[in-house]
Write a structure and sequence with these properties.
By secondary structure, the chain is mostly beta strands. It has no helices and 11 strands. A hairpin with a 5-residue loop joins strand 5 and strand 6.
Length: 116
């Protein structure tokens, strides 16, 4: 039984930064792959960044060099540091936890708006 709670979204100007946090409950955080997804109006949900239980990371091409995903297993928390934000980054950002394929959990989402 897992609950994911995102925080840190908001309104920011182009070029600005935000750090998203996702706090997870449950016993299997350390064994889980964690990811950040986003969905803009009229578009499919897309993977932004992911980190495995072993610490390997993967990023969407559009955010490489600007976003950094990290995790703190002691705090059951995954982060997304977002720098040099662009208007096209505007979306609802969702936290995802996956373990052994059949266990797949989602947070409620947090709005990120990049606008002048």
């Amino acid at each position: 039984q897992v609950q994911l709670v995102e925080s840190g979204g908001g309104l920011v100007q182009p070029g600005g930064s935000l750090r998203l946090s996702c706090a997870a409950s449950g016993s299997f955080f350390r064994f889980s792959a964690m990811g950040w997804y986003r969905q803009a109006p009229g578009k499919q949900r897309e993977l932004v960044a992911a980190i495995t239980s072993g610490g390997s990371t993967n990023y969407a091409d559009s955010v490489v060099g600007r976003f950094t995903i990290s995790r703190d297993n002691a705090k059951n928390t995954v982060y997304l540091q977002m720098n040099s934000l662009k208007p096209e980054d505007t979306a609802v950002y969702y936290c995802n936890q996956r373990w052994l394929q059949q266990y797949d959990y989602w947070g409620q989402g947090t709005q990120v708006t990049v606008s002048s």
